[in-house]
């Protein structure tokens, strides 16, 4: 298990598929977490392995990807997978905290839910 | 067809070429090309998944809206000003809440602007004059792919002629694609924007001695170097993104950044501007501002407009379960709101107006498909720098426009409500 600070945000692939949200392309564009090389190694992951991301606000299973992030920072593209674990509190601004959430990431054998399954579980 | 205007991101590029035979657009980026590519559409209006006529769907929508005590009318960032205008009137007639996508995007910048004003500029001004451009928590290479070539990185301006004459700085928590092409990358710890901006203000105002050796993961020397570049710029521009508005500090981060720009403007010229996302998210704020005085989070339940993001932003309304129906126009809150907010949306009747099926379609009771502005319908939109542009109709369609659908709903609501 590693503890990371989770950020979420736009990617080119997420943007290009945003008007096709029920397609496989969108599913693939938003269903993963990017981890630093060190955190990836510590969890003994291979590209395409699955991890469970747990925060105080929820948990979600996503695919793991290695990236150039600094150790301790992780990134999930904006979308339903990210929104399963972000902090909904807006501190009076109307804006939930989409970035900078403490998360625990661990290896899992659980399946990545489809977008429809994710919605049904809410 | 020449001079096609793109209706994807806030850059609203106006130089596309459309091949009517191949049905393809040229010159646009990956995002713009995907916008103009053929894709799955909502085939017909639907009630509970069953296909019906436009009139039947509108009747059902009106029935839901007039029977609701407090409907939420949300979305508006991917439609034209003409439709938004009708939407705001509808929210007033229904005594509902009007909120728009900026509330989970750039609205903290609006709060900061209310406090401090906004020393801004058009993108044309930045292209022609800016010799230093800072992307702070923004990543145009992925979110606004042609912003750099048209306005801010390699754009050929009148006074600043090319990339060599322009210094590009990226401040971010991760080495983004934009950071890779920058002259200077300042990597900060998440949530430390406010502290770093305060340190820069201290250094620029001659109080470097109070700044500790490291702030938010950045060594003091690097902050001093950045402050020097900022002071020496002839014309600087800060383009901030969701890295600032969605992190700890939110609106206060922007307020502090505007104060930094005000300080720099005592000796040189700096501007600051948000990198707005959807092509008309500016209109979703400007139109209600010129109709009722506020940009978002507007409640009409007392018969007049009240603004309070802590109470009337869509996420707060949903978390509090303070709406009993929702009209979602040109947006997908089910995909983009926190899980707890979606939970309430699933429990109330939802009406969706949108060209494309998305996650909100999956929970909507009434679905009304619409024409795509910029492709199948013309209308006026505001580019991210508030410059209005008339987007074009290039293909014929049988789909109704958002404006026509909303006009029909409004007509019936007025008849019932008076």
From TrEMBL, chain A:
InterPro entries: Asp_de-COase-like_dom_sf, Formylmethanofuran_DH_dsu, MoPterin_dinucl-bd_dom
GO MF annotation terms: molybdopterin cofactor binding; oxidoreductase activity
Signal peptide annotation: none
Highest taxon in the source lineage: Archaea
Residue ranges of domain Molybdopterin dinucleotide-binding in the record: 6-100
Official protein name in the record: tRNA CCA-pyrophosphorylase
Positions in coiled-coil regions: none
Gene3D superfamilies: 2.40.40.20
Organism: Archaeoglobus fulgidus
TrEMBL record, chain B:
Sorted UniProt keywords: Oxidoreductase
CDD domains reported for this sequence: MopB_FmdB-FwdB (cd02761)
Keyword 4Fe-4S part of the UniProt annotation: no
A single GO molecular function term of this UniProt record: NADH dehydrogenase activity
Membrane spanning residue stretches: none
SUPFAM superfamilies linked to this entry: Formate dehydrogenase/DMSO reductase, domains 1-3
Stretches assigned to the Molybdopterin oxidoreductase domain: 41-399
Biological processes per GO annotation: methanogenesis; respiratory electron transport chain
One Gene Ontology cellular component: membrane
Family matches, as NCBIfam families: one_C_dehyd_B (TIGR03129)
Identification of the protein by name: Formylmethanofuran dehydrogenase subunit B
Species assigned in the record: Archaeoglobus fulgidus
